[in-house]
Amino acid sequence: MKCLQLIIGPAGSGKSTYCSVMFDHFQSLHRPLEIVNLDPAAETFNYTPSVDIRDLISVDDVLEDEDIIMGPNGGLVFCMEYISKNMEWIHDQLTDGDDAYVMVDCPGQIELYSHLPIMKEIVTTFKSWDYNVCTLFMIDAHFVLEPEKLIAGALTALSSMISLETSAVNVLTKMDQLPRESKKEVEDMLESDCSQLVNGVNDEPWNERHAALSRAIASVLDDYSMFKMVALDNTDEESIEDLLLMIDTTIQYGEDAEVHDRIPKEVDPNEE
Ligand SMILES: Nc1nc2c(ncn2[C@@H]2O[C@H](COP(=O)(O)OP(=O)(O)OP(=O)(O)O)[C@@H](O)[C@H]2O)c(=O)[nH]1
Questions:
Q1: pLDDT tens, 84-136?
Q2: What's the gap in Å between 208 CA and the centre of ligand 1?
Q3: By CB neighbour count within 10 A (0-12 exposed, 13-18 middle, 19+ buried), where does 205 fall?
Q4: Could you tell me if residue 270 is inside a domain?
Q5: SUPFAM superfamilies under this entry (predicted)?
Q6: Distance between CA 122 and CA 102 in Å, rounded?
Q7: What is the pLDDT of residues 41-70, one digit of tens each?
């Protein structure tokens, strides 16, 4: 079964760092992994991509083209539209075997996932090549310690999940940077449901309606069990293993192999 992790999240949330940490982890497990850099504006990253989209098109090239007049954001959208129409260029460079496992390191512009159709088209193309796709939404752990920011992060992640139509795992990055007491706070938070977490929103009289709205959103998130987060401490091997196990389960990695192993050997009809 072909598996694909689509790594998305705001700029600086830790997408490329995650890819390089997982690249090393896969190597230590002797598991094959191909990484696609899908960010035409990427500057540097600490892994060796199997496919680098900048070899096809880069934002710098587009901005230098005198026939195309646009700013950096328009340049990125132009590149992404071009990529979505030239996906075969990526396909040709992937091994694409039955056990292919691919990570796609995406740009951080959130509008690509919320209201533009481009990423959905790219995901649909990967699905048409029989990849099981799981979206990983990276959230900087520093931003979830306040209930208001937690709600905002949850809604952004949900809007991406709904528009991309894939299974999803929300990853809290940079846990190693948190002081011990904040780390404990985040770990406790992950054990709680959203309604408990937003109890602390500012409900001074002038914020009453805002607090009520936050509580209503939290209760919907709990009712549908749709927003779950996993903390990742890049410096802790166990944390990396736990996350990969969860993603593999979500993405159904290796399930066809297990089914194959479970197929009974030819049965002798004379045998009882
Ligand atoms: N200590 C620590 N630093 C991290 C971690 N993840 C990311 N960083 C740092 O945060 C900064 C941004 O990380 P990136 O991995 O480049 O983030 P990105 O989401 O790929 O950023 P864009 O490509 O701009 O969208 C870099 O300086 C990283 O070194 C982490 O888990 N721990």
A1: 999 999 999 999 999 999 999 999 998 888 778 999 999 999 999 999 999 99
A2: 36
A3: exposed
A4: no
A5: P-loop containing nucleoside triphosphate hydrolases (SSF52540)
A6: 14
A7: 999 888 999 999 999 999 998 888 766 667
Residues 6+ apart with CB under 8 A from 239: 175, 231, 232, 233
Q: How many domains does the chain have?
A: 1
- Give the nearest ligand 1 atom to 17 CA: 15
Q: What percent of the chain has pLDDT over 90?
A: 55
Q: Mark 238-255 as b/e (b = at least 16 C-beta within 10 Å).
A: ebbeebbeebbebbebee
Distance CA 145, CA 190 (A): 11
Q: Is residue 267 part of a domain?
A: no
DSSP reduced 3-state for 19: helix
CA of 140 to the centre of ligand 1 (A): 9
If you measure from the C-alpha of residue 173 to the centroid of ligand 1, how many angstroms do you get, rounded to a whole number? Answer: 9
Question: Residue 170 sits in which domain range?
Answer: 2-262
Q: Which atom of ligand 1 is nearest to the CA of 19?
A: 15
What is the value of ipTM here, to two decimals?
A: 0.98
